[in-house]
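Run log // design_07
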């Protein structure tokens, strides 16, 4: 399983890396801001994707990234981790966008 994340201050990166360790995965984690990330996603069938809740929603940068590369998500198993401070709002339901692209 490959890790993919967007993380402003590092909380989400930490959680994705902890999840991979607990899952027993030997794969690393890439930020969506790294240019190799897309190529790494293409090569895997199973992903964990982490993002922080921002303004009770999925961050725009993550939404745009998913929508900009619709082909790479097709047929994959995607486990989503959303980190938050207090109130998740609609941020987790918006994760369904991974299955709608
Ligand atoms: C611009 C901004 C908006 C945020 N909005 C929310 C929110 O609506 N609800 C919430 O519970 N936490 C909110 N948070 C807190 C983050 O989701 C939380 O601190 C998260 O763990 C940060 O992860 P990161 O270190 O990977 O960026 C917000 C943080 C930022 C910077």
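design_07 sequence
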């Amino acid at each position: 399983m490959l890790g993919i994340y967007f993380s402003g201050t590092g909380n989400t990166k930490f959680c994705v890396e902890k999840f991979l360790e607990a899952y027993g995965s030997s794969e690393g984690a890439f930020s969506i801001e790294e240019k190799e990330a897309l190529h790494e996603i293409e090569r895997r069938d199973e992903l964990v994707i982490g993002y922080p809740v921002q303004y009770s929603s999925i961050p725009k940068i993550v939404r745009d990234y998913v929508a900009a590369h619709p082909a790479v998500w097709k047929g994959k198993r995607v486990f989503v981790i959303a980190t938050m401070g207090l109130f998740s709002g609609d941020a987790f339901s918006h994760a369904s966008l991974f299955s709608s692209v």
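DSSP finds four helices and four strands in the chain.
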